Amino acid sequence: MPIKGKILIIFGCFIFLMLLFLWLLQTVFLESFYKLVKTQNARSSTLAVVDNIDHENLKVLIERLQYEEDVNIQIFDVSGEEQLVLAQTPHPSVRLSPEILSHLIQIAEKTDKPYTELIQLENFRYPNEENNLFVGNVPPPAKNQIQTTVCAMMTTNADGQQLLVVACAPISPIDSITETLQIQLIFISFILLAIFFLLAHVLSKQIAEPIVHMNHAAQKLAAGNYQEDFSGEGYQEIAELSATLNYAARELGKVEKLRQELIANVSHDLRTPLTMIKGYSEIMRDIPGENTPENIQIIIDETTRLNSLVTDMLDLSKLQAGVMDLTPIRFNLTESIRTILTRYVKLIEQEHYKIIFSAAEDVWVVADELKISQVVYNLINNAIHYTGADKKVTITQTVREKTVRIAVSDTGQGISEEQKPYIWQRYYRIDQTHKRSAIGSGLGLFIVKNVLDLHGARYGVDSCEGKGSVFWFELQLDRL
Ligand code: ADP
User: Fold this and answer.
1) Of the candidates 395, 406, 399, which has an alpha carbon nearest to the alpha carbon of residue 344?
2) Can you state the angle between helices 369-386 and 444-455, rounded to 10 degrees?
3) Are both 39 and 150 inside the same structural domain?
4) Residue bearing the CA closest to ligand 1, atom 8
5) CA nearest 156: which of 47, 54, 80?
6) Whether residues 330 and 215 fall in one domain
7) Is residue 121 a part of any domain in this protein?
8) Which pTM does this prediction carry?
9) Which residue CA neighbors atom 20 of ligand 1 most closely?
10) 445 lines ligand 1 (CB under 6 A)
């Protein structure tokens, strides 16, 4: 069932119960409730007078009680003689018949608690009845209809005189009040119904709308749109739910991005060796005499490299997830670079590239050999692709006190100062129309940066626009 329906039902039941309760209270139980209140008033007034029977301001107290509690208070002695008559009562004076009075005295003498009774007033006297001072033509209610709650209690004053305190709370006929209340009830019902519809509408809108919105967003998320924003506001629970969904969407987005990057990385770095294998195989197939052990060795080397690269690509995805480990070993860096360069022999022969490696001595470092080779390979590949018309690429090994610097220079267009910080970012390519852009995916330098960062190595690029670039990195020497 939709939220709106449920809210309507709950609110409807609530309003119905409220109206029913009000109706019962205002019609069925009104009279008994009214009598109960009156009895209570008479009782509390009697007790107040008894407690203050010797107080000098007793009269003031009685006057106040008569006014506030809507009662009529009289004090008698045991013979039934009225002791304290108060003028100015706000109600018609109630004159108790001698029979009732002696009946009350009899009961009150036997107990020290207030005694209450509902009595019919036969001997009822309106104030100023003799002078017929009633306002207008309104006839007074029939005397036999007048009821009063009487509360009587016996007490003894300071002079040792036994006194009967009687408080009468006349019960007015409530027919007209009931009628008024019923009209009022109809009004209240209409007002409550209006409030009910308004509240139900506002509430269901407030609760249902963000949920409906979140549902749409979740459907889009399921369809692969990880940028979806679950902006559920209003209630704490909804806000929390939307925050959780936003978090889940972000995490899913990261996983998806990682997956795409992995595919892109793999295709980028696998393409070069694959091209070489294909090239060499075609040469061996088409050109007689090219089926040499050296060429076959190159194919084997590239295949081995491909294999390592696949492992490496997986490493890169781990690296991005923050879980990649290095496998550092002590190896001859100079030799390693020489081995990498053998792969370019054909390129040098056929495309007339000049790849120069200058190293004064063999140096040893402790690092992950495969990953460092990947760095060198990427830098040389870039240099070959971006170098100038002279097709010259120079690799220089410079040994300092504790470090060795490998610099790969080309004579290409160079990189402007503004571009420099960006080239290390993944998917960044300066010239989208460059001859390599069809092949490159902008990942090479990103991989280089990650591997060197992991080694804690220093690296950078010095470039002069129009004159070429020098990509370099430094590793700690490991002298024996
Ligand atoms: P790509 O696969 O596009 O070569 P890289 O991450 O290796 O990706 O390089 C990022 C960008 O840096 C390249 O697209 C290129 O614009 C620039 N770049 C890299 N190496 C050089 C270089 N030797 N000379 C000039 N620009 C370079």
Assistant:
1) 395
2) 140
3) yes
4) 442
5) 54
6) no
7) yes
8) 0.46
9) 382
10) yes
* Any ligand 1 atom below 6 A from CB of 430: yes
Claim to verify: residue 58 and residue 183 sit in the same structural domain: yes
Q: Which amino acid is at 129?
A: E
Strands in 403-410's sheet, in edge-to-edge order, are 354-359, 392-399, 403-410, 468-476, 458-464
377 lines ligand 1 (CB under 6 A): no
> Tens digits of per-residue pLDDT, 246-303?
888 888 887 787 677 767 766 776 787 888 899 999 999 999 898 899 899 889 888 8
Domain limit, last residue, from 225, 250, 277: 225
Cα Rg, the chain, nearest whole Å: 52
Please count the structural domains in the chain: 2
Q: Among 413, 345, 355, which Cα is nearest to 384's?
A: 355
| Residue 147 β-bridge partners | 120, 171
Quote helix, strand, coil % in the chain, to nearest 5.
50, 20, 30
Each residue's pLDDT tens digit, 19-59: 898 888 877 888 888 889 999 999 999 999 999 988 888 88
398-404: Cβ within 8 A, 24+ apart: 399/360, 399/361, 399/363, 399/477, 402/476, 402/477, 403/458, 403/474, 403/475, 403/476, 403/477, 404/333, 404/363, 404/365, 404/474, 404/475, 404/477
The residue among 182, 205, 225 that closes a domain is 225
The reply to whether 266 falls in a domain is no
SS3 405: strand
- 107 C-beta neighbours (distance < 10 Å), count: 13
Domain range for residue 441? 326-476
